Design the sequence.
């Protein structure tokens, strides 16, 4: 009888220990973006607090911020995902944070993004499909399909954006594609 009670107590203690260990871990959350100080971890451009911003939260809690989904992809290709706790993207319509794996993505070479990777994210597949109607040659992707996407930047679009920025340089400030001056070195990151 004592043995059965001891085994029962040990089992209960083990179950309680496992439950408490799980309670101490919090899921990674996206960090707030401050355009006055936040720079893309890849291209070093200003990260605006808008629907193009993406983040990687590392296992140690450090937040890496990106101005374009393509920059986040480039970082992941160069560094892998072993230290990544979570990747976040924003819904194109609402700018709400989403887990990378939960979003639906649209690519078309005519979609303007800060670094001309031309990929945007949506919380709802139906919204992505509706957006895609504007781009008949575009493609719809789930997160696990983005690995096969050709992440080449649209250099023609980059050239046009640079020309436009040069023409408007007197009225812009900062260091972002979405409202600031960009040097040739920044254009070719």
Sequence:
């Amino acid at each position: 009888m004592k043995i059965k009670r001891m085994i029962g107590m040990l089992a209960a203690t083990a179950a309680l220990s496992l439950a408490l260990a799980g309670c101490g871990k919090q899921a990674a959350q996206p960090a707030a973006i401050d355009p006055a100080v936040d720079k893309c971890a890849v291209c070093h451009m200003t990260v605006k607090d808008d629907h193009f911003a993406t983040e990687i939260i590392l296992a140690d809690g450090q937040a890496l911020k990106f101005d374009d989904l393509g920059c986040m992809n480039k970082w992941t290709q160069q560094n892998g995902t072993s230290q990544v706790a979570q990747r976040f993207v924003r819904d194109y319509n609402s700018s709400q944070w989403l887990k990378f794996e939960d979003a639906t993505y649209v690519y078309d070479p005519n979609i303007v993004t800060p670094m001309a990777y031309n990929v945007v994210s949506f919380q709802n597949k139906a919204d992505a499909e509706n957006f895609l109607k504007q781009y008949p040659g575009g493609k719809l992707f789930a997160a696990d399909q983005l690995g096969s996407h050709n992440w080449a930047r649209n250099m023609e679009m980059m050239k046009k954006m640079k020309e436009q920025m040069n023409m408007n340089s007197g009225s812009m400030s900062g260091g972002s594609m979405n409202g600031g001056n960009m040097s040739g070195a920044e254009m070719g990151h």
Observations:
- Residues 54-169 form one domain.
- Helices lie at 2-23, 69-79, 125-132, 155-167, 184-187.
- The beta strands are 54-58, 63-66, 84-90, 97-99, 104-107, 119-122, 139-142.
